[in-house]
Queue: 3 jobs
Job 1
Amino acid sequence: MSDNPPFTHALLAGALAGTTVDLSLYPIDTIKTRLQSSPGFYPSGGFRGIYAGVGSVIVGSAPGAALFFVTYEGIKSRLRSTRESTAGMSEPVEHMVAASVGEVAACAVRVPTEVIKQRAQAAQQPSSMAALRFILTQRRKVGALGVWREMYRGWGITIMREVPFTAVQFPLWEGMKAWQRRKTRRDQVTSVESGLYGSVAGAVAAGLTTPLDVLKTRLMLAKEKEAALPLFRRIWREEGPRAFVAGMGPRVMWISAGGAIFLGSYEWACNTMSGVT
C-alpha cells in the first residue's frame, strides 16, 4: 500500500475494517462492558445474550471507521507535505496528531453507537432499538437538546480515552511498518505484517488506557448524567483503585485481536484496490 492511499480507498477500506473487527469481536466487547458495569458481570447478564446491542454496531461501525481513516490519511498527508517543504514536526508526532484528529471526527458516530450498544450489553434494555427508543421517548421530558445530550453522554471521556489510545497505537503501528519496509527493502507491507504490528500496538495502548475506558463505561451506563471527576472520586472511594483495571484482560485481548483484524484488513483492502499483491 502506498503511504497515503487515495480518499476513496481510505473510505472503503476503513468501512470494511470497522465492520469486520466490530462484528467478529463483539462477544468479547460485551463481556468487557459487563465486567466494568456498576452492578457487576452476572447481574448485567453474564454470558447470556452476548450479541445484545449488535444492531447499533452494524449501523455505526462502517461510517465511524471510514470517517476516522479519511481524516487520518488526509491530515497525515498534509503534515508530511509541510515537513518536506519546511522544517515541520517529526513523523511520529505527525501520526499522533493525525490519529487524534481522526478519532475526534469518528466519535461523532462512535459515541451515540456506544451509548446505545452498551445499554443493551449491560441488560438495561433488551436491544439496540429498545435503547434508542427509550432515549427518544425522553424528548417530552427533556426536549430535543436533552435527547442530543443523552445520545452524546460520555463524549468528553470518550475523547479523553481515544486520543491517548491512538497517540500510542498509531505511531507504534506506523513505526513498525516503516521498520519492516527498511528491513525487507519493499515499498509496502503485507496485510499479515500490518495486522501483526497492529495487534502489538493495540495491546500496549489498550492496557495503558483501561482506567479511562472504565470511567467512560460507568458514565454511559449511569442512570443519571454525572460529571467525570466526581464519578472518578466516588469509584476510587467506594471500590478502590482495582476498579479502574476491571476488564483489562478482555480489553487487551479484544483490542490486540481487533488491531490485527482492523489494521490487517485495512491494509489488505488498500493493497487490493491499489493492485498490490
Job 2
Amino acid sequence: MGLFSLLLSWIAPVFIVVSPLTSYSDQILSIRRNRSSAGFSLDIPLIMLVSSILRVFYYLRHPFSLPLLYQSFIMIGVQLLLLSTALHHRPPLPPTLSSYSTPHAPPPPPLPFLPRTFWRWPPPHTRPYALTLLYLTAALLVLHLVLPSSTPLYTPLLGALGLGIEATLPMPQLLTNYRRRGCKGFRASVLFSWLIGDAMKMMWFFQGGGGGGGDAAAAQAEKIPLAFKLCAAVQAVCDAGLGVQWWMWGDGKEDDAAEEEVEKEKLRHGNGNGVVGIETLEMEKRAGLGA
C-alpha cells in the first residue's frame, strides 16, 4: 500500500495538470478533420472557461494545491482553442430555421436564468464570445482589487461558484445526447479521459494525503479544499451517466425525417429547381431502401 500511495501522490497531480490536453486534443482534431462541430455542445467551453477563470481568482484569495492552479491555466488555453475551432466549423443552418437553433431542436440556454440567445450567437459572429469572457475577467479583477481580503462571504462564494459551475460540465452533453438518443459528435476519447480523470481525482483527493507519499506531495494533497472534493464527486456521477448513455445508444440513429426536411429546405432555397431537387431526393431515398 505504501508503494501505491507513493505512485498515486506523484502521478495523479501530473495527470491532473495535463488532463486538459489529454481530454480535449482529440475533440479539437476531430472537429478540424470533419470540418464540423455538429453534436458537440458549445456549453462545454463556456462552463470550463468560466469555472477556470473563477478558480484562478479564488486561488488569489485562498491558495490551494498548485497542480490544480496549473490545470486551470492550461484549461483556459485549451478551451479557448476548442471554442475557436468549434465556432469556425459550425454546421450551416437552413434559412427558414432560427439562427439560434440546431437542425433538430433549439438547445436550451446554458443556465436557466440566462437569455435563450446567450452563447447562441449566430454565425459568423464570434466577437460576442470573446467579449463575454473579457468582461467576466475584467469584473473579477476589479472586485479582487477593490474588495479587501477580509470581505466576508466573497472568497467562499467565489470558490463555490467556480467549482459549482465546473460540476455541471457533463450536464449539457447529457441533455444533448438525450435529445438525440445518441452520442454522435461527442468523442469517446473525451469520455474515456473524463472517467480516468475522475478516478485519479477521487483517489488523490480522498486518499492522497496519507500513506507515505512524501512530505511535499502530502502537503499538496492536504491543501485541497472540501469544495474540490464535492465537485469531483458530482462530476464523477455525471460522467458515469455519460458512460451509460454511450453504452446504451452509441452514436445513435439520426432522425431521418428531420434530416430529410433539412435537405428539402436547402433544395427549396438553394436553387430555382426546388421541386425537381425534392423529387430527386425522394428517388434517391427509394433507391436506397431498395438496395
Job 3
Amino acid sequence: MRQAAEEVEVPSASPNLAVKVSTSFPSSEIFGIKLVNGHPTQALLSFTNDEPEAVNVVFIGGSLWTSGYTDQPSRVVRNLTTTRYNVEIPAGQKDSISYSFVTDLHPQDLKLNLAAVITDNEGAAYTLQALNETVSIVEPDASIFDPQIIFLYFFLLAAFCGTCYFIYSTWITTFFPQKKRGGKGGERAKRSSGRSTKVDPADQVSVIGADGPAVTSGAKAYDESWIPAGHINRPEARRVKSGPRPKSRSKPE
C-alpha cells in the first residue's frame, strides 16, 4: 500500500490524460527563439482540457540542456525557476498561463525544456511537456545611454586627459622658456621710467637754464609708489642773507 501511494504522488511522464499544452513566445523573432541575457523572457502556455472533470495546473518550470549535436550526451546547463500557479481549468475549457524566466549565460545554442505539473480531480499528479526546442542565448544590444557605458566613457576620458597633462608638464614645457617674474624695485623703476607718456601742451612749462631751454610737464612720467616718502617730500633749503665781505688788510711791506 505504501509503495502504491508513493507511485501516485510521483508525476507521470506519460499521462493518460486528455489535456493538451502548447507554448508560444510573444516577443520571439521570425528566425527563432532568442533568450536575451538579463531580460525576462515570457513564455505563454496554452492548455486545452478535454477531460470530463476539471484539472489544476500546479507548477510550471524548465531547464536548459546542451544541444547534443556532438558525440557527447546532452546534459543540464541551467535549471529555470519553478513557479507555483494552482490555476483550475474547467472541463472542456481552454486557458493560457504566462511563465517568465531570466538567463545569464554565455552566448550559445541550447535546448529549452518546459514542463507543467497538473493534477486531476482525484489529486493524481501528471507532468506535461510544454516545449523542447533549440533556442539561442544572446547578449543585449549595447546602448550609448546605458549607465555602465556612460561611466566607461567618463573613465576613459579622464584617463586620457590625465595622460596628456602628464606628457605636457614633463616633456613639452621644457621646450618653452619660462617668463621671468617682476624683479626688485630698481628694475621696476627702470621699466616704469622707460614708458612714454603723452603730455598735454597746456601742462608744459618752459625753463631756461645753462644748458639751454628745456620743457617740463606737470604730468608725472614715473611711478612714485616705490619711492620712499622721505625722498619725495624733501625740506626746502632756507636762504641766508649774506653781508658785505670785510676788506682784506694788506700786509705792511
